[in-house]
Amino acid sequence: MKYICQILILLFALFPAACSPAAVIRPDGTSAEVFGPNYDCVLEEKGYLTSLVSGGADFAENELAGVTTSVLHAPGGNVLPDRRELGENRVVFYADGIGRVEYRFSDQGLTITLAAASEVPLSYALTLNRHICCVGDGRELQDPKGSFPAGDYRWVRGFTAMRTSGDAYFWGPFAHYCPVLTLDAAPGETVSADIEFLPVTDRERLRAAPALSQSGELLSPAEYQVFQRRDKYHGRVLVSGRAKCGSVVVKIAGKDPGRTPFTVTKTLRTDPAGGFSAWVDCPAGGWYSLDIKTPAGRTLARREHVGVGEVFVTAGQSNSTCCGEERQLQTYRMGAASDTLAWAPADDPVPGPQDHTDGGSLYPSFCDRLWEEFGVPVGVVPCGFGGTCLNDWEPGGDIFEVLASRIEKLGKGGFRAVLWHQGESDAYEPPASSFGKMLRIIGESKTRAGWEFPWFTAKVSYQNGAEKRVWQIRQVHGRLWQAGVSLQGPDTDVLSGDMRDGGGNGIHMSARGLKAHGRMWAEAVIPFIYEAIN
Hints:
Elements: H1 2-14, E1 24-28, E2 31-35, E3 40-43, E4 49-54, E5 57-58, E6 70-74, E7 77-79, E8 83-86, E9 90-95, E10 99-105, E11 109-116, E12 122-127, E13 133-134, E14 147-148, E15 153-157, E16 160-166, E17 169-171, E18 180-185, E19 190-199, H2 202-208, H3 210-214, E20 216-220, E21 225-228, E22 234-243, E23 247-255, E24 261-269, E25 275-283, E26 285-293, E27 299-316, E28 335-338, E29 343-345, H4 363-374, E30 378-382, H5 398-410, E31 417-421, H6 431-449, E32 455-459, H7 471-482, E33 487-491, H8 511-533
Parallel strand pairs: 21-27, 27-30, 27-31, 28-30, 31-32, 32-33
Antiparallel strand pairs: 1-2, 2-3, 3-4, 4-5, 6-7, 6-12, 8-9, 9-10, 10-11, 11-19, 12-18, 13-15, 14-17, 15-16, 16-19, 17-18, 20-22, 22-25, 23-24, 23-26, 26-27, 28-29
Helix pairs in contact: 4-8, 5-6, 6-7
């Protein structure tokens, strides 16, 4: 027996890989990161698989604002697990009385197992990246228009293939034509899906992305993207993508705010999968051009409008969205808006509002005024939703999650401040209750972001021409200012008469009111910006 133990110890020493888990699970607070030989993934506290990366490409959809990458669903709504269990090569999330979802990891991929309780059916959905292409089983699913049965499929993104098999079926369109991997378990049933990452063949790569074989894929920056400057004169741009060459040359060119021409170049090496990613320093200003070239000088990708300036996240109800009476256009066209997925000029209707309204907004006027003052591009990320009360924005709800996810996506220092314009729906609520709700919204948004960003709150309570000011909610806004929880935004209740729609009787803004509203917000943040950049 003594010699057998010695032999086993020797085998463990000589062949540790054969005796250790194929994937490493590393708890990180309430989430868990998993590192496999050829893939990585992240599991959040609520059981969500939020990232599934192989070969530098994410096969899960985590770029679309408002989309939860994966979710558990039972009759009555989405399910949040009660507890989590970490094993040597697995993570299990339990929903008491409903069922469980288990992620089991191997050297080549993972298996997702869904088990429903005896009384309740349970579903699991994983939204796959919208850029993915199915090349297996003869089915083209990049633009799905129906349900596709369980089977053996191969998916390609970039230079990596992902094989799916087992009980999962696929359906769509979901959002931007993302295919959705779905498991359905009847009461007492257990089902599973296998995911395996494999080298992609030349034939699959050409079928999935013919343009990539000719040039490259530029993931960042997007056209019209604005990056938050670090100080008055300096900023940086995130450049990432994939290319079929050992290195790429990044070239950023334009004129800085002093109208001095400049050119910045930086060479980036690509990884074995062809990926590249780096922050590139450049002057604050824009619009700048950005080129990705091969070392021989051939252009792989180009952006005509990239900016480094002032970025703001906005939220609240309808007067923070596109509910104005007439659509507005910028004068200088130096502002851009985004839902953190795509960027576009900040002309109405701007992208981003959760209510998908398509009327007029304050943003063209807001961007124009800041451009006049600072001479740098302005980016806005609108997250508002018309008609919402503070209860709708409570942390954990879908509307708050969109706000939090966009803030997280912009990253630490990725924007100047959050601008909050809400109060009409809560005008008559008890001030103490509304104040507590605002504390939770502001506090949790900063906790989720991981940094102490500034928050501005407008004083707003306007109901109609006869009720222009309601003291209850105005008291809440003033108390937030006095307590230092929020910085002071504009008092937009002064916008009345022909500043409002419906001949002055409406709650939304007229064309004249939208222009004034945008300038009021700009004037509120201008002193703060000067203090920050100086």
